[in-house]
Amino acid sequence: MGSLADHQKQPFGDYLDPIDSPYAACRHIVFVNSSLVCGGAERVIVLLTGCWARAGTRTTVITVHSPDRDHHQLDSRVGRVSLAENQEARNLYEGLRNNIRRIRKLRQAIRLLKPSAIISFQDTNNILTLISVFGLSLPVIVCERNDPRMRPLSPFRRTLRWLLYKSASALVVQTRSLLEWGSSMVGQGNVHVIPNPVGEASSNGSYAFQKDGPIVAVGRLVKQKGFDILLKAISLCEQDWQLEIIGDGPDRPNLELLAAELGVTDQVQFVGQVKDPREFFRSASLFVLSSRYEGFPNVLLEAMAFGLPVVSFDCPSGPSEIIRHGVDGVLVSPGNAEALSQAIDQLMVNSDLRSSFSKRAPDVLERFAADEILSRWDVLLGSVSKSAA
Fold first, then answer.
1. Which long-range contacts (CB under 8 A, 24 or more apart) does 128-134 make?
2. 125, CA 20 to 30 Å: which among 19, 146, 263, 362?
3. Where in the chain is the domain with CATH 3.40.50.2000?
4. Whether 281 contacts 287, CB under 8 Å
5. 4-196+369-388 — its CATH code?
6. Which of 223, 271, 220 is nearest to 249 (CA)?
């Protein structure tokens, strides 16, 4: 993929994969995100753009960073533009300079693409996008992909977000629990709840979990994901259950040290980042989500779509709108390692209960089907496009 800086040398259309569709000229949806690294927001962008592309709608993804950071792959019919802005700021001056350059490049890309609507993901990108489109009279939908009440932001960025979100055509949050927060930002009529779609399961219709398999947890190794609490819970369990933690991140050395201090090194395997964590679902007995906070955890959806019984902390946003407590999984008090250990023990010693949850877990494939979620997006896009006309 070429970067925007190369645009002066060749036609902008060279950056876009061709779309052979009679509908391509009717609507052009542009997504803005930092990158396509391994993450929930990135996974949703790939799912949504792929669905729209297959339906004949023209879609393009603009990323701030270069494609060499990509983990997810877009549908071949989806356009891709990279601003190639990978510079890390070492001080306030460099941060300001980098953002001014990003805003200029993003505005240039948007003007050349001529979208009918823009969907921006994650708070920092939302701020940059809203500044970039100033005066262009384009509908912009900003999306919060985590729990904004819990996510740390500097006072300056928090103020910018509060001021700029009011100029957005709509704000999308992922759960009903965020409606009040969203209404305080943009007004009740401009906030919309649209959960993430679940991807297709790769279990070939076979949802039988492994009765003697390990416990699986997936996520970036950072404080938010609560793997330190999970390790404490494993150490409190009545039996020496095996745990596989899939993912990588800056907290890995500290977590490995904690596992040694808790005496569970022989029980815990740090697998690292993998291309598709679902490969590990086939041999698992149980999936555990130990996050301190979440938006709408895709990995929980995917584990359940695969037929895994699940245990999760009842975060302020997310898991309680996915898990039906006592039907397809268990919700426990947030951050409580002892309660988590008791839930793990309860399920691991009771294969009949796990089997019952396993049979109901794949209901998420209908409850959060891509077609259903896409229809909500279509309604919203139609509404903001009509308002902007």
1. 128/32, 128/64, 128/99, 128/102, 128/103, 129/32, 130/164, 130/165, 130/167, 130/168, 131/103, 131/164, 132/103, 132/106, 132/107, 133/107
2. 19
3. 4-196+369-388, 215-367
4. yes
5. 3.40.50.2000
6. 220
Q: Tens digits of per-residue pLDDT, 2-13?
A: 333 333 222 233
Of the candidates 362, 375, 322, the one whose C-alpha atom is nearest the C-alpha of residue 51 is: 375
Q: Class of 215-367 per CATH?
A: alpha beta
Compute the chain's Rg from CA coordinates: 22
- The token duo for 90 is 């070492």
Q: Which of 297, 122, 285, 282 is nearest to 225 (CA)?
A: 297
Q: Which residues pair with 33 in a beta bridge?
A: 63
Digit-coded pLDDT (tens) for 35-83: 998 788 898 999 999 999 998 899 999 999 988 878 888 999 999 999 9
Contacts with 189 (C-beta within 8 Å, 6 or more apart), sequence order: none
